[in-house]
Structure formats: structure tokens, C-alpha cells
Design brief:
The protein is 27% helix and 38% strand. It has 7 helices and 11 strands. It has helices spanning 8-14, 20-34, 53-58, 70-79, 115-127, 142-147, 208-217; strands at 41-45, 62-67, 84-87, 99-104, 129-140, 153-159, 162-173, 178-189, 192-204, 220-227, 240-247. The strands form 2 sheets. A 7-stranded mixed beta sheet has the order 3-2-1-4-5-11-10, sandwiched between helices. The longest helix is centred in the first third of the chain and has 15 residues, at 20-34.
């Protein structure tokens, strides 16, 4: 079972206020500064239930997505019958196609828990890109995470008659550069507790030298390295970073 399989039915309630459209506009604006041609064929590493996909489709991309959660993919397939979806791990799933653009958003890259996984995933991205193709991804930036540790949080989210209560408890491992993000969920239907479950997500925060090294080793040149949703350079205030790289 994938980490997101229990979470999947409620994921879109939890993230209903997330501005997916502005994130895609940001990425395409960054690409426009480097090249006027986005290409046609796009692959999303870790597409989940497809939150970004309608905005890729609006921009006339032929969209494919890979995800490890069958439950999330099932939701995406129902919503977007014109897109193409594949179950598998982004580090080694092989498709019989190359793409103009690969994106990996909402910190999917931070689920890679070793240097080997990171290198394999960048290699897989390179293998699936045409010459000159682009790879865009966001990530947790290590210096900012260490300066401003993730904190315990209690949040609630609701839609129609469903309320989702989520407690988040992070556990830092400074030797491995990871955060174990423990979620406890309570699902209420019409105000009555329906069920409870928990999930644990291991996230590895990253530093620029390791990203640069593994991209370079896998035939990429970094075009942009920004604080997420800005054109500013990474800093100790940049919990989230963004990389745009080109396959050479």
C-alpha cells in the first residue's frame, strides 16, 4: 500500500484551497524566460490525484503521469480521461516515450530517501526527455528547514458534510537529513466520527550541492534555481525551492 492510499479519498478536501493554477503559470513563466517553446508532451512525476493536470491541459499539453498510489491514480483517471496514467515508482518506471517537459511538484522529490534514489530519479527523468527537454521540480530546502523546524499542527478541513481533522507531528533526524511527518486523521460525516487512521511520510530535505551534483551527473544543466514562486535566489528563508534544468 502506498503512503497516500488511505489519504486519497480526502486529499482534495485537505488541499482544496491550493492554487494549482498559479503554480503552473509560475513554471511556464520560468520556462518562457529560457525558451519560447514549451513543447507538447509533458510527464508528471508523482501526479497524485491530478491537481495540476487541468492547467497543463489548458495549455495544450499532452499529459502523462506516474504515481505510486493506485488510489490516487484511480481518482485522476476518473477526472481526466484524456490524460495517460501509469502506476510505478518515479525512480525506475520506464515508458516507451520521450517528453518535452517533466515536472515534479509538491515536494515529490523529497520522498526520495537516499542519494541513490535521487540519482536514479534524475537519470530516469533524463532518459524520458528529448534532447534539450526540461525538468522542473520543487523541493524542501535544507538550510531553511534547519533554521525553521517543522512544527506540530492541528488543522481542520471541510467540504459539504465531510470534515477532516488532521494532527501533524514531525520528527527530525539530523544525521539523515529527514523529517518523519506523522499524520493522525479523524473523518467526521455530518458531525459524527466515521473513522480514524494514521499515515507516516518520510521526507528528505535537500541542499543545493547535492541537487547540482546529481543533475550534472545525469546530463542536466541548471537554468534556474529560485525560491518557490519567486525569481529570488534561495536563502535561509526559502523553505521551498524550485529548479529548472535542461537535458544537454
Amino acid at each position: 500500500m502506498s503512503q497516500f492510499d488511505k489519504y486519497a479519498p480526502y486529499y482534495e478536501i485537505v488541499y482544496q484551497s491550493k492554487n494549482y493554477k498559479s503554480e503552473i503559470k509560475y513554471i511556464l513563466d520560468c520556462i518562457s524566460k529560457e525558451t519560447g517553446d514549451f513543447g507538447k508532451y509533458l510527464l508528471e512525476f508523482g501526479c497524485g490525484s491530478g491537481g495540476h493536470i487541468p492547467f497543463f491541459l489548458e495549455n495544450n499539453f499532452d499529459v502523462s503521469g506516474i504515481d505510486l498510489s493506485n488510489e490516487m491514480l484511480s481518482i485522476a483517471k476518473d477526472k481526466f480521461p484524456d490524460a495517460h496514467f501509469y502506476h510505478g515508482n518515479i525512480s525506475d518506471k520506464k515508458l516507451n516515450q520521450t517528453f518535452d517537459l517533466i515536472v515534479s511538484l509538491y515536494h515529490v522529490i523529497n520522498y526520495l530517501q537516499s542519494e541513490l534514489d535521487l540519482s536514479k530519479t534524475f537519470r530516469n527523468a533524463s532518459d524520458h526527455l528529448k534532447s534539450g527537454g526540461l525538468f522542473a521540480f520543487d523541493f524542501w530546502y535544507g538550510p531553511a528547514v534547519l533554521l525553521d523546524h517543522p512544527k506540530n499542527l492541528d488543522k481542520s478541513f471541510s467540504k459539504d458534510n465531510i470534515e477532516v481533522l488532521r494532527n501533524t507531528t514531525p520528527v527530525m533526524d539530523y544525521n539523515k537529513n529527514t523529517v518523519q511527518v506523522n499524520f493522525d486523521f479523524k473523518i467526521l460525516i455530518d458531525g459524527v466520527l466515521e473513522h480514524e487512521f494514521n499515515e507516516s511520510h518520510l521526507m528528505k530535505y535537500l541542499f543545493f550541492p547535492e541537487i547540482e551534483y546529481h543533475l550534472t551527473q545525469n546530463n542536466f544543466k541548471i537554468l534556474q534555481c529560485n525560491s518557490w514562486m519567486t525569481t529570488k535566489p534561495l536563502s535561509e528563508d526559502s523553505w521551498y525551492g524550485f529548479i529548472l534544468a535542461k537535458k544537454e
